[in-house]
Amino acid sequence: MRIHIEKQEQIARDAAQKYVELLNRKPEAVLGYATGSTPLGLYFELARLNREGALSFARATTFNLDEYAGLDGTHPQSYRYFMNKNLFYNIDIPIENTHVPNGINTDIAAKYDEAIEAAGGIDLQLLGIGNNGHIGFNEPGTPFGSVTHVVDLTDSTRQANARFFESIDEVPTQAVSMGIKTVMKAKSILMICIGKAKAQTVRDFILGEVTPDVPASILQLHPDVDVYLDPDAASLL
Ligand code: GLP
Fold it and tell me: How many angstroms separate the CA atoms of 101 and 104, rounded?
């Protein structure tokens, strides 16, 4: 695991350069994307670089980590809506090349892994981290061998994400998420963690034991991971 500690603005710029390098080397790259507030700076930077011609997504394919169960893509809090608004509509990717797990037909979840395989596997997977160490929506205790599946969201995750909804009651109780095994199959992983609230989790997943209790700790076993931390997130290392 390569650890980079930088200011938030610099993280967005450096992380974006990984996409410039990848897409110029392999224009048909398969990209794994994440939601949450953490990647917004990177998405803004990718759109800017795309506008300026530094990279093109025209031949890329994308797979998002997760989606709320019960929300379709027109719901403003769905992750499909988030991705369209914050990235896909701002870059030159054909929208049919973009994939988000189906939050309505959740019984087809495992087919998502087949679609990723059929596309050639993910070249670069972007990750954020939940306050409890989750990646995607793989909550503590999720088996490391899991593929895309329906998950029950913990109360703490629903509380943390309630800020995007009118009230906690509107936050779905389930989601569809790539599994830990799905994430670990990505050729390269780029993780970004920002803010003091993540500091203990960051310490646990980087320095602690590899355990399903801290889902992100599995990344210690992946051969190609870059972790970008701002000074607050890195403050307990
Ligand atoms: C959600 C997403 C995760 C994301 C996490 C952290 O739970 N499923 O993929 O990493 O939120 O979000 P934020 O970046 O807003 O802290």
Answer: 9
CA distance 227 to 191: 5
Ligand 1, pocket-test mutation among 38, 164, 202, most atoms within 8 A of CB? 38
Q: pLDDT (tens digit, 9 = 90+) per residue, 161-193?
A: 999 899 999 999 999 999 999 999 999 999 999
Which of 45, 66, 113, 123 is labelled catalytic?
Answer: 66
| Fold of domain 2-229 | Rossmann fold (3.40.50)
| Distance, CA of 91 to CA of 234 (rounded, Å) | 31
Place of tokens 């972007």: 126
- Reply yes or no on whether 209 is catalytic: no
Asked if residues 124 and 31 have their Cβ atoms less than 8 Å apart, the reply is yes
Site of tokens 């990718």: 46
pLDDT tens by residue, 96-116: 999 999 999 988 888 999 999
| Region of residue 53 (phi > 0: left; psi between -120 and 50: alpha; otherwise: beta) | left
Q: Give the model's pLDDT for residue 109.
A: 85
